[in-house]
Amino acid sequence: MALQMSSLDLGWLAGFFDGEGWYDEFYVKSRHDSSVRYPVACLGIANTVKASIDHCQEITGAGRIRLNPRTPPRQPIWIWRLNKRAEVIDVLSQLEPHLLIKGDRARVVLANLRARSAGMAS
């Protein structure tokens, strides 16, 4: 689970996510039965400034950071990404009220994730 963020951290992360972040959902095959596919949700932010990406992980206590090297003169890109459904729901739930650009999409995404999680629990 992600950490509860302060209002200052929420404002910072919401602005950063509005500008540089993304949400994606894709399907992967089951390890045990290749005919079964299940949805995976992820949320992330990419940037060339590693300190900003490190701060995302630091204030949320969630996600992983990886480097996407690129051929010069292009700068390498650092990526902070959440792949665990519970972390995506937790972080996006905290961010959603503060999002100006991606707020509408966040509400739809959260509703879908919560409905799917409720269906998996029953």
Gist?
This protein is an alpha+beta fold. 45% of the residues lie in helices and 25% in strands. The two termini are 21 Å apart.
Structural summary, described in words:
Helix content is 45%, strand content 25%. By secondary structure, the chain is an alpha+beta fold. α3 (85-95) packs antiparallel against α4 (103-121). β3 (64-68) and β4 form a beta hairpin.
Percentage of helical residues?
40-55%
The CATH architecture assignment turns out to be Roll
Output mean pLDDT.
92
What is the CATH class designation? Answer: Alpha Beta
The rounded distance between the terminal residues' Cα atoms is 21 Å
Number of domains: 1
Strand order in the largest sheet: 1-2-4-3
CATH fold call? Endonuclease I-creI
Oligomer: single chain
Poorly predicted runs are none
Number of helices: 4
The tally of beta strands, per DSSP, is 4
List descriptors:
single chain, 122 residues, alpha+beta, Endonuclease I-creI, 4-stranded antiparallel beta sheet, 4 helices, 4 strands, 45% helix, globular
List the topology elements.
Layout lengths: L6 H14 E9 L7 E11 L2 H11 L3 E5 L8 E6 L2 H11 L7 H19 L1
Antiparallel strand pairs: 1-2, 2-4, 3-4
Helix pairs in contact: 3-4
